[in-house]
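Input record (one chain):
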Amino acid sequence: MSESFSMNTPLTAADGVPLKTRLQQQRRMRQLKALLLVLPLALFLLLTFLVPIATLLTRSVDNPEVVSVLRETTQALKPWDGKSLPAVAVYDALSRDLQRAQAEKTVPDAAKRLNMEQSGFRSLLQKTARKIPLAPEAGQSTRDAFIALDERWGDVSHWQVIARNGSSWTPYYLMSSLDLRQGADGKPELVPEDERAFLSIFGRTLWMSFWVTVWCLALGYPLAYWLATLPTRKSNLLMILVLLPFWTSVLVRVASWIVLLQSEGLVNGALLWLGIVDAPLELAFNRTGVYIAMVHILLPFVILPAYSVMKSIPPSYMRAAISLGDHPFAAFWKIYFPQTIAGVAAGALLVFIMCIGYYITPALLGSPQEQMVSYYVAFYTNVTINWGMAAALGSLLLLATLLLYGLYSRLVGANRLSLG
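The corresponding structure, as predicted from the sequence alone:
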């Protein structure tokens, strides 16, 4: 008689380990192998994407210059009311700080930072540092000696600037990127109208990006629809022509457009030869040329997502709607178009995001009135070496990109729910 099998006896593997335990070990091993396979990509993204973004966000509020050079002065200014001149002890602290900074050759760092907020502060601080240590006359305090050296040390506004920079973090760069400044009451306020620049630059960037996106959609959607309805062999052949610009550098394409659009270029030459115009058209080094070149460069980014969505829509949907008595245009608008919104929106979002960060095309083919935010990021990075302003402008562009992506997610999600 065979042994009866107990239902309470745990199943074991060949080596006597419970089967449940062995399955858990194998599952953990597979998870570990998957993690090791993904780890190089995760490290790559961390080092090339997340760390630079974190550095960018940090530099936009980083403010180490004044607090590191004028350590004692900023500490002594903390209890100051900000209305009357600081106490003599603050001037004594400034004298010691400048004497130390002159020896360490760090005065220009603080002078450059303070000069951003108050013009003339660079010369004032460097002039004072060269005269340190001051020798007050009989009966004079250190404060009197500073004011005798330069009357600006008796101006409360200069001390307010030093006090505002008494922290390692500052909203100055972000506020300046939005044409704001800290008022006398400590609240943000718009700078005078003749000093405003960045709001108009951001507005110009968004406006130009909007119109480039509109033109890309107007040209790309019909072309994608045409490619999707052609036989496979012909559509593949024409798709090569769409992808062909990717094989050429953007710089080369912009240079080609300069040759084509300039006053003595091929386009104006052809128009004059045909008698369409009597004088060359201004097509280069203005907004028209920038629009033409950017639409040409970014058009494939609308065509490809739209084509991939359109190709997946069965043609029988349209034929069924028309056979049931619907007009072809009405059938297209009610049946076909809603199914293409996701791909078209993805292409439009991609084009718009690329536009707001574009640099080469406006810089080479546009005038100063066509320069976008990215131009000024490069300017502050390469020319004035103002990393704070460059990081602040870049952070605002990043914020705009995230907002656009969030808007896209909401719109596409709502569209999918309505179609469902």
